[in-house]
């Protein structure tokens, strides 16, 4: 079975089913490995070096294990590909926030958004919750869909899962706080490197195209992307977030509280109007449009290469 077909089947399994519930999720297993290695490696004093060792152990190990499993069965390979995507789970969790706000239950909305963000949520206003949900969806277009798809088309399930391993390392230890500033440095830098190309393809190509199909503004996407893409602490997240803000005609960023400390983030986008509940659904529609366009691009590139090489 050709790789593009396997990726397409895995993508649609995620689109329909979401994360598997009756089977151990590979990302959870990777997370368990990272936690165990952290306990072992942080016993020394050279934390930055220990972090490098963790990355060198986890990412190649995942690659070769998945390569071996994929060689055993195409069905197992498709299952692994299916678990790499996070399209359904991301949209489902964002819709839980939407429903809670639509029902007027702000306490439940705060609880639901707390599962998606690391910022303080206990005293969030309605507009803060909406902004956090939209930012989460738009930032994770790359991590959850387009970057995994990029590496899947390049190197199949082994490359896709190796990317996911690097992404998981970053999400677990890639923080710029006192605990992880040294130990998580290498994981964060690797994640930045791996997301560099996918983030720019997503921001400059996929989101503006998706805006055409979702009632968004293509010119707005490019205008805000070119102006505000660097208004983010991440070298990559600002690309999808700024393009999305421009496409939707909204303003993101601004003051956010983390662990009781207010962080004045730069604004992204123009405040053409106040954020409204429907913006969560608009962001989700953009997410789905980007995902299907990315799949289409993958097929076009695959067939072009196959025809000419």
Topology:
Blueprint: H1 3-17, H2 26-41, H3 47-72, H4 74-84, H5 87-102, H6 106-114, H7 126-173, H8 185-214, H9 218-228, H10 238-248, E1 252-258, E2 261-268, H11 278-308
Antiparallel strand pairs: 1-2
Helix pairs in contact: 1-4, 2-3, 2-7, 3-4, 3-7, 4-7, 5-6, 5-7, 5-11, 6-7, 7-8, 7-10, 7-11, 8-9, 8-10, 8-11, 9-10
Counted by DSSP, the helix tally is 11
The strand order across the widest sheet is 1-2
- Strand fraction equals under 5%
Largest sheet: 2 strands, antiparallel
Order of helical and strand elements: HHHHHHHHHHEEH
- Principal-axes geometry comes out as globular
Report the span from N to C terminus. Answer: 19 Å
- In terms of structural class, how would the helical and strand content be classed? mainly alpha
Tally of strands? 2
Which residues sit in consecutive blocks of at least 5 with pLDDT less than 50? none
Mean pLDDT: 95
Helix fraction? Answer: over 70%
């Amino acid at each position: 079975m050709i790789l593009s077909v396997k990726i397409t089947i895995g993508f649609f399994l995620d689109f329909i089913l979401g994360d598997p519930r009756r089977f151990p999720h590979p990302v959870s297993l990777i997370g368990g490995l990272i936690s165990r290695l952290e306990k072992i490696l942080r016993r020394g004093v050279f934390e930055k070096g220990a972090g490098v060792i963790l990355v060198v152990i986890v990412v190649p190990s995942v690659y070769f294990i998945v390569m071996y499993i994929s060689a055993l069965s195409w069905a197992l390979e498709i299952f692994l590909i299916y678990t790499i995507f996070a399209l359904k789970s991301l949209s489902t969790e964002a819709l839980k926030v939407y429903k809670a706000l639509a029902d007027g239950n702000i306490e439940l909305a705060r609880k639901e958004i707390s599962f998606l963000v690391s910022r303080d949520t206990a005293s969030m206003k309605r507009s803060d919750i909406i902004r956090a949900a939209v930012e989460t969806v738009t930032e994770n277009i790359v991590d959850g869909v387009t970057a995994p798809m990029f590496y899947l088309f390049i190197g199949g399930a082994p490359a896709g899962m190796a990317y996911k391993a690097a992404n998981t390392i970053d999400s677990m230890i890639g923080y710029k706080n006192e605990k992880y500033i040294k130990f998580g440095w290498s994981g964060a830098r690797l994640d930045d490197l791996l997301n560099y190309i996918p983030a720019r393809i997503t921001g400059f190509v996929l989101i503006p195209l998706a805006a055409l199909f979702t009632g968004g503004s293509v010119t707005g996407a490019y205008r805000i992307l070119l102006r505000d893409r660097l208004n983010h602490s991440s070298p990559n997240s600002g690309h999808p977030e700024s393009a999305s803000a421009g496409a939707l005609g909204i303003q993101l960023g601004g003051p956010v509280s983390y662990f009781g400390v207010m962080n004045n983030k730069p604004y992204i986008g123009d405040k053409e109007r106040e954020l409204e509940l429907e913006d969560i659904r608009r962001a989700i529609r953009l997410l789905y449009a980007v995902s299907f366009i990315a799949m289409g691009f993958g097929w076009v590139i695959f067939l072009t290469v196959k025809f000419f090489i």
